[in-house]
Protein backbone atom coordinates (compact mmCIF):
# COMPACT_ATOMS: atom_id res chain seq x y z
CA UNK A 1 0.00 0.00 0.00
CA UNK A 2 1.16 3.54 -0.74
CA UNK A 3 0.55 6.64 1.32
CA UNK A 4 1.19 10.04 -0.23
CA UNK A 5 0.54 12.72 2.43
CA UNK A 6 1.66 15.34 -0.09
CA UNK A 7 2.20 15.53 -3.81
CA UNK A 8 4.65 17.42 -6.03
CA UNK A 9 8.43 17.32 -6.26
CA UNK A 10 11.26 18.66 -8.40
CA UNK A 11 14.63 17.60 -9.69
CA UNK A 12 17.32 16.89 -7.15
CA UNK A 13 20.00 14.93 -9.04
CA UNK A 14 20.69 12.92 -12.20
CA UNK A 15 18.34 10.12 -11.12
CA UNK A 16 15.40 12.54 -11.35
CA UNK A 17 15.89 13.42 -15.04
CA UNK A 18 13.27 10.96 -16.28
CA UNK A 19 11.16 10.94 -13.09
CA UNK A 20 7.97 8.99 -13.71
CA UNK A 21 5.91 11.54 -11.77
CA UNK A 22 7.56 14.89 -12.48
CA UNK A 23 9.97 14.30 -15.37
CA UNK A 24 9.68 15.49 -18.98
CA UNK A 25 7.13 12.82 -19.95
CA UNK A 26 5.01 12.93 -16.81
CA UNK A 27 1.35 12.87 -17.70
CA UNK A 28 -0.76 12.48 -14.62
CA UNK A 29 1.60 14.25 -12.26
CA UNK A 30 3.23 16.82 -14.54
CA UNK A 31 3.45 19.58 -11.96
CA UNK A 32 5.90 20.71 -9.35
CA UNK A 33 3.53 22.35 -6.88
CA UNK A 34 3.91 20.77 -3.49
CA UNK A 35 0.60 20.42 -1.66
CA UNK A 36 -1.10 18.21 0.90
CA UNK A 37 -3.27 15.43 -0.48
CA UNK A 38 -6.72 14.46 0.75
CA UNK A 39 -5.07 11.35 2.26
CA UNK A 40 -2.84 13.42 4.53
CA UNK A 41 -4.15 11.87 7.75
CA UNK A 42 -5.05 8.48 6.25
CA UNK A 43 -3.14 6.25 8.74
CA UNK A 44 -5.04 7.67 11.72
CA UNK A 45 -8.50 7.98 10.18
CA UNK A 46 -11.14 5.91 11.93
CA UNK A 47 -14.47 4.44 10.88
CA UNK A 48 -17.77 4.93 12.71
CA UNK A 49 -16.90 2.14 15.14
CA UNK A 50 -13.78 4.06 16.14
CA UNK A 51 -11.43 1.55 14.47
CA UNK A 52 -8.58 2.63 12.21
CA UNK A 53 -9.50 2.47 8.53
CA UNK A 54 -6.10 0.93 7.80
CA UNK A 55 -5.68 -2.28 9.77
CA UNK A 56 -2.34 -3.03 11.42
CA UNK A 57 0.45 -5.38 10.33
CA UNK A 58 0.89 -3.57 6.99
CA UNK A 59 3.76 -1.97 5.13
CA UNK A 60 2.97 1.57 3.98
CA UNK A 61 5.27 2.86 1.25
CA UNK A 62 5.34 6.54 2.23
CA UNK A 63 6.07 9.36 -0.22
CA UNK A 64 7.08 7.07 -3.10
CA UNK A 65 5.52 9.62 -5.52
CA UNK A 66 7.18 12.64 -3.93
CA UNK A 67 10.02 13.07 -1.38
CA UNK A 68 9.50 12.79 2.38
CA UNK A 69 12.26 15.32 3.11
CA UNK A 70 11.22 18.16 0.80
CA UNK A 71 11.78 21.49 2.60
CA UNK A 72 8.34 22.64 1.46
CA UNK A 73 6.82 19.89 3.65
CA UNK A 74 8.67 20.79 6.87
CA UNK A 75 5.58 21.95 8.75
CA UNK A 76 3.39 19.04 7.57
CA UNK A 77 6.08 16.50 8.44
CA UNK A 78 5.76 17.36 12.14
CA UNK A 79 2.19 16.00 12.05
CA UNK A 80 3.27 13.01 9.98
CA UNK A 81 5.86 11.98 12.59
CA UNK A 82 3.08 11.98 15.20
CA UNK A 83 0.89 9.77 13.01
CA UNK A 84 3.78 7.37 12.42
CA UNK A 85 4.43 7.18 16.14
CA UNK A 86 0.76 6.51 16.85
CA UNK A 87 0.64 3.59 14.35
CA UNK A 88 3.30 1.31 15.82
CA UNK A 89 1.43 -1.59 14.17
CA UNK A 90 2.37 -0.32 10.67
CA UNK A 91 5.81 -0.38 9.06
CA UNK A 92 6.46 2.90 7.25
CA UNK A 93 8.86 2.64 4.37
CA UNK A 94 10.44 5.95 3.38
CA UNK A 95 12.58 6.37 0.28
CA UNK A 96 14.45 9.63 -0.33
CA UNK A 97 16.94 11.44 -2.52
CA UNK A 98 17.21 14.16 0.16
CA UNK A 99 18.82 12.22 2.97
CA UNK A 100 21.02 15.26 3.68
CA UNK A 101 17.93 16.92 5.20
CA UNK A 102 17.41 14.06 7.65
CA UNK A 103 18.79 15.55 10.88
CA UNK A 104 17.05 18.91 10.55
CA UNK A 105 13.76 17.13 9.81
CA UNK A 106 13.59 14.87 12.88
CA UNK A 107 11.06 15.11 15.71
CA UNK A 108 12.41 15.91 19.18
CA UNK A 109 11.73 12.43 20.54
CA UNK A 110 13.49 10.57 17.71
CA UNK A 111 16.39 9.32 19.87
CA UNK A 112 17.94 6.34 18.07
CA UNK A 113 14.92 6.16 15.75
CA UNK A 114 11.35 4.84 15.76
CA UNK A 115 11.05 1.05 15.50
CA UNK A 116 8.41 1.16 12.77
CA UNK A 117 10.36 3.13 10.15
CA UNK A 118 12.62 1.71 7.47
CA UNK A 119 14.50 4.43 5.58
CA UNK A 120 15.85 3.97 2.08
CA UNK A 121 18.56 6.18 0.60
CA UNK A 122 18.45 6.36 -3.19
CA UNK A 123 21.73 6.36 -5.11
CA UNK A 124 21.83 6.33 -8.88
CA UNK A 125 25.55 6.79 -9.57
CA UNK A 126 28.93 6.77 -7.79
CA UNK A 127 28.88 10.51 -7.12
CA UNK A 128 25.59 10.31 -5.24
CA UNK A 129 26.68 7.12 -3.44
CA UNK A 130 29.85 8.85 -2.21
CA UNK A 131 27.91 11.94 -1.12
CA UNK A 132 24.74 10.46 0.38
CA UNK A 133 25.80 7.15 1.91
CA UNK A 134 28.39 8.41 4.44
CA UNK A 135 25.73 10.83 5.70
CA UNK A 136 23.06 8.12 5.69
CA UNK A 137 25.25 5.76 7.73
CA UNK A 138 26.10 8.46 10.25
CA UNK A 139 22.45 9.20 11.15
CA UNK A 140 20.52 7.44 13.92
CA UNK A 141 17.89 5.04 12.57
CA UNK A 142 16.86 1.49 13.40
CA UNK A 143 16.52 0.06 9.87
CA UNK A 144 18.01 1.25 6.62
CA UNK A 145 18.26 0.13 3.01
CA UNK A 146 19.86 1.41 -0.18
CA UNK A 147 17.84 1.78 -3.40
CA UNK A 148 19.95 1.93 -6.59
CA UNK A 149 17.12 3.44 -8.53
CA UNK A 150 17.43 4.16 -11.36
CA UNK A 151 20.85 2.55 -11.72
CA UNK A 152 22.76 4.75 -14.19
CA UNK A 153 26.29 3.33 -14.01
CA UNK A 154 28.46 0.84 -12.18
CA UNK A 155 28.58 1.70 -8.47
CA UNK A 156 30.97 0.50 -5.80
CA UNK A 157 28.77 0.26 -2.71
CA UNK A 158 31.20 -1.93 -0.80
CA UNK A 159 32.49 0.82 1.58
CA UNK A 160 28.91 1.49 2.66
CA UNK A 161 27.24 -1.88 3.14
CA UNK A 162 28.10 -2.52 6.79
CA UNK A 163 25.06 -1.52 8.82
CA UNK A 164 22.71 -1.63 5.83
CA UNK A 165 19.92 -4.24 5.92
CA UNK A 166 19.05 -4.47 2.26
CA UNK A 167 19.80 -3.25 -1.29
CA UNK A 168 17.19 -2.97 -4.04
CA UNK A 169 17.99 -2.16 -7.66
CA UNK A 170 16.00 -1.00 -10.70
CA UNK A 171 16.80 0.24 -14.16
CA UNK A 172 15.23 3.42 -15.47
CA UNK A 173 11.80 3.34 -17.04
CA UNK A 174 10.54 5.54 -19.88
CA UNK A 175 10.82 6.47 -23.52
CA UNK A 176 14.14 8.26 -23.05
CA UNK A 177 15.42 6.05 -20.24
CA UNK A 178 19.16 5.50 -19.89
CA UNK A 179 20.25 1.91 -20.34
CA UNK A 180 20.90 -0.45 -17.47
CA UNK A 181 23.78 -2.89 -17.97
CA UNK A 182 23.31 -6.35 -16.46
CA UNK A 183 27.05 -6.45 -15.62
CA UNK A 184 26.52 -3.47 -13.25
CA UNK A 185 23.63 -5.33 -11.63
CA UNK A 186 25.67 -8.52 -11.14
CA UNK A 187 28.55 -6.50 -9.75
CA UNK A 188 26.35 -4.90 -7.08
CA UNK A 189 24.83 -8.29 -6.32
CA UNK A 190 28.35 -9.69 -5.72
CA UNK A 191 29.10 -6.82 -3.35
CA UNK A 192 25.93 -7.66 -1.39
CA UNK A 193 26.82 -11.37 -1.27
CA UNK A 194 30.25 -10.55 0.15
CA UNK A 195 28.76 -8.14 2.72
CA UNK A 196 25.90 -10.51 3.69
CA UNK A 197 23.27 -7.94 2.72
CA UNK A 198 20.02 -9.06 1.09
CA UNK A 199 19.54 -7.98 -2.52
CA UNK A 200 16.49 -7.50 -4.72
CA UNK A 201 16.71 -6.99 -8.48
CA UNK A 202 13.34 -5.31 -8.79
CA UNK A 203 13.18 -4.16 -12.41
CA UNK A 204 15.32 -4.18 -15.57
CA UNK A 205 14.20 -0.74 -16.72
CA UNK A 206 13.25 0.00 -20.35
CA UNK A 207 16.64 -0.44 -22.04
CA UNK A 208 18.37 -3.48 -20.62
CA UNK A 209 21.83 -4.46 -21.84
CA UNK A 210 22.97 -8.07 -21.62
CA UNK A 211 26.02 -9.58 -23.35
CA UNK A 212 26.53 -6.32 -25.24
CA UNK A 213 22.98 -6.28 -26.66
CA UNK A 214 20.42 -3.66 -25.59
CA UNK A 215 16.84 -4.90 -25.49
CA UNK A 216 13.75 -2.69 -25.10
CA UNK A 217 11.57 -4.15 -22.35
CA UNK A 218 7.84 -3.53 -22.11
CA UNK A 219 6.97 -1.72 -18.81
CA UNK A 220 4.79 -4.65 -17.74
CA UNK A 221 7.65 -7.13 -18.20
CA UNK A 222 10.50 -5.24 -16.50
CA UNK A 223 9.71 -6.69 -13.09
CA UNK A 224 8.98 -10.21 -14.31
CA UNK A 225 12.19 -10.39 -16.36
CA UNK A 226 14.22 -9.25 -13.35
CA UNK A 227 12.52 -12.00 -11.35
CA UNK A 228 13.11 -14.64 -14.06
CA UNK A 229 16.83 -13.93 -13.95
CA UNK A 230 16.64 -15.28 -10.42
CA UNK A 231 19.53 -13.35 -8.90
CA UNK A 232 17.70 -11.80 -5.91
CA UNK A 233 18.24 -13.21 -2.44
CA UNK A 234 15.87 -11.93 0.17
CA UNK A 235 16.27 -14.31 3.12
CA UNK A 236 12.57 -14.13 3.92
CA UNK A 237 12.40 -10.31 3.79
CA UNK A 238 9.06 -8.94 2.65
CA UNK A 239 9.12 -7.30 -0.77
CA UNK A 240 7.86 -3.77 -1.18
S1 LIG B 1 13.17 13.14 -5.85
FE1 LIG B 1 12.01 11.39 -6.63
S2 LIG B 1 9.91 12.14 -6.93
FE2 LIG B 1 11.25 13.94 -6.73
S3 LIG B 1 11.76 14.52 -8.86
FE3 LIG B 1 13.39 13.15 -8.08
S4 LIG B 1 12.80 11.09 -8.74
FE4 LIG B 1 10.97 12.41 -8.88
Short overview:
The chain is an alpha/beta fold and 240 residues long.
Written description of the protein model:
- The model has no long low-confidence stretch (mean pLDDT 94).
- With 240 residues, the protein is an alpha/beta fold.
- The protein starts with a strand and ends in a 12-residue tail after the last helix.
- It has 2 domains: 1-117; 149-240, no CATH class.
- The chain is 20% helix and 21% strand.
- The strands form 3 sheets. It has a 7-stranded parallel beta sheet with strand order 1-4-5-6-7-8-10. The chain has a 3-stranded mixed beta sheet with strand order 9-11-12.
- It has helices spanning 74-86, 126-138, 182-195, 222-228; strands at 2-3, 6-7, 35-36, 58-62, 90-96, 117-122, 143-148, 166-170, 180-181, 198-203, 207-210, 213-216.
- It contains 4 helices and 12 strands.
- Residues 9-12, 15-16, 19, 21-22, 66-67, 97 line the site of iron/sulfur cluster (SF4).
- Iron/sulfur cluster binds at residues 9-12, 15-16, 19, 21-22, 66-67, 97.
- It comes from Aequitasia blattaphilus.
- This is Phage Gp37/Gp68 family protein.
- Pfam families: DUF5131.
Amino acid sequence: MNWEPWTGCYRMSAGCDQCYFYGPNAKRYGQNTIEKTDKFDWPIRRNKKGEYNIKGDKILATCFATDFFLPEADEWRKEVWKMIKERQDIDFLILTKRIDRFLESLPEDWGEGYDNINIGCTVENQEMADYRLPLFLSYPMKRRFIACSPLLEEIDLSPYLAGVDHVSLSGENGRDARECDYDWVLNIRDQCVKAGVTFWFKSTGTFFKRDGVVEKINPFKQGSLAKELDISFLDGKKLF
